[in-house]
Amino acid sequence: MEGIILALFFCLILALITKYLSVPAIPFYILAGVVLGNAGLGLVASDEISRFFSEMGLIFLLFFMGLGLKTEKLAANRSAVLTSGIIDLNINMVIGFIAAYLLGFSVTESLIVASAFYISSTAMALTSLIENRKLMLRESETVIWLMVFEDLILIIVLALLSAGNQNIAIFLVKILGVLAVLYALAHYGKEFLISILDRDDELPILFTFAAVLTTASVSMYLGIPETMMVIALGVAFATTDPDAFEQHARPFKDVFLVVFFVFFGVTIDFSGGINWYMITVICLLAIASKLISGVLTGLFIHGSALSGLEIWGNTIARGEFSIAIAVLYGSPLVGTTIAAMVIVTSIVGAFTAKYSTALRRGILSLGRKKSPPHRSHLGR
Amino acid sequence: MSAMSLRSLNLPGVGTKYEFETDKGDTVALFFTKTGTIQMYTLQKGCKTPSAAEMTPVEARRLGNILTGAIIEADQESVEIAFSALADLRVTIHSFLIPKSITGRTIEDLQIRAKTGATVIAVCRNDRNIVNPPPSFIFETGDAALVIGESDQIKMFEREIMVD
Fold first, then answer.
1. What's the confidence (pLDDT) of residue A369?
2. Distances, alpha carbon B94 to alpha carbons A282, B81, B144, B164, in Å
């Protein structure tokens, strides 16, 4: 128990510093965990309580993600979302998978690394768009929808990786059964749900907490992925009053997620060996492959490679979802590799997101100097 | 004149966007973000990079007041309300910071109603509001008075009472 308090205290200080400097906090939470935990000073060890808290963090993160997924919204600009989403998925999954496989991971492990490699951090991307005042850029809308698309892919990845060697038919029937119950509750119980959310006593927050935990434990009992089911719960509840649910789930998410990040760092151990060559290759490729997918998306959607550079700058950072995949399915070596990738890409990503506009301007002015005939066009 | 078309869009995880193009081809975009702030972007016609300002909800409301033409001076606010059902009656409500010159004097003794026709309907003192102050009310330094009347009466108040 003292361990959690010590870790939380460190995170509080880190949160203050990172917010002041407006840099992402996630890599520093993980680093704090590494320093305090097994791989570092050994001051903090994971126990029953920390494992429970971490699990809550993951579950509330996914529930929150589900609340944000409103399927009817996708219909608006479907072709652009689909094009950019498919480019992003294919380029990064394929590069991630081949790299991991060539570095000696097994097929399953490579799939896990590739998924973590593919999925950018929604939290960091959206925060950077807001904080760097880029919302009006046309590329921002592409980035925002790309994050939604990645979230949808994550659900499929979670299902695939959790299915394991169960009987697929029974597995699917169980999932569909729970989904049907959730939607029936949200549909027929809508009035009731809204009446609960409207109260100003402890009921709304108690209900939110209980609903998420119940869904998770029933799923675990039935042997279906609780991660997928809490996302589904979020999507179902989003049809009632998503803002109210977000408001009530946020305190749980915010606190437990910090525990989740820091204890992910704590549990990292270098017993699987620390392969600097492997880590360097994965980190460099993680940055490079988003550049390729970004530039292609820029060309296809906006007809400009420079737009792609803007997309790249805001999607480099891997974060919460990559770690979720590592925690759920990764071996120690996979965990260490993904941790290193998240730390490096999120720090690099913070810089590229901040200076991408300057970078674009720099490249434009370079291009101008090289091609004097265009000068008359661009001048004035 | 072409009708201004206002686009509104829900951006998942970010908030709501409102955008419109002016007659002259400039673009204005507003984002109500989930973090509670409001970002305003303006993009001049022919330009590539917009400029942005981030505001708190209070600041945004203030900007709204300025844009609707209500504010006259930077630190003093004024709202004019027109009642079309009452023979187009126009009433102005104006806030004034009480100057040193009338500190310690009462509403009655300043003859505000007789001299200007305007009425002091509220005074804000140390973040507390005193609504409908009595004629015996004594002004103190730092008070902000809310005065109601027709716009001529408000001008008279400014000339006669504020520079005593």
1. 66
2. 65, 11, 10, 18
Angle at CA of residue A119, ends A22 and A320, nearest 5°:
50
- Domain containing B109: what range? 78-160
Claim to verify: residue B90 and residue B140 sit in the same structural domain? yes
Q: What is the rounded CA–CA span in Å between residue A286 and residue A318?
A: 9
Percentage of chain B surpassing pLDDT 70?
A: 91
Asked, for residue B1, whether it belongs to a domain, the answer is no
Task: Compute the distance between CA of residue A340 and CA of residue A351 in angstroms, rounded to an integer.
Answer: 17
Average pLDDT for residues B78-88, to the nearest whole number? 75
User: B-chain residues within 8 Å CB-CB of A141?
Assistant: 11
Q: Which of A133, A147, A357 faces B39 most closely, judged by CB atoms?
A: A133
Domain containing B134 — which CATH number? 3.30.70.1450
For chain A, give the percent of residues with pLDDT over 90.
45
- Cα-based distances in Å from B103 to B99, B100, B115, B136, B142: 7, 5, 18, 13, 9
Instruction: Give the CA radius of gyration of chain B.
Output: 21
The last residue of a domain, from among B67, B86, B106: B67
What pLDDT was estimated at residue A364? 81
Percent of chain A's residues with pLDDT above 70:
93
What are the tens digits of pLDDT across the range A325-344?
999 888 888 888 999 999 99
A68 and B12 Cβ atoms separated by less than 8 Å: yes
Query: What's the rounded Cα separation, in Å, for the pair A70 and A72?
Result: 6
What residues of chain B have any CB closer than 8 angstroms to a CB in chain A? 10-14, 17, 27, 29, 31, 33, 35, 37, 39, 41, 43, 49-50, 52, 54
Residues of B within 8 A of A70 (CB-CB) are 12
Structurally, chain B folds into a number of domains equal to 2
The distance of B25 to chain A (nearest Cα, Å) reads 16
CA distance A268 to B99: 67
pLDDT of residue A290: 95
pLDDT, mean of residues B53-65: 87
Count of domains forming chain A: 1
Q: Which residues pair with B82 in a beta bridge?
A: B90
Instruction: Report the pLDDT value the prediction gives residue A109, as an integer from 0 to 100.
Output: 92
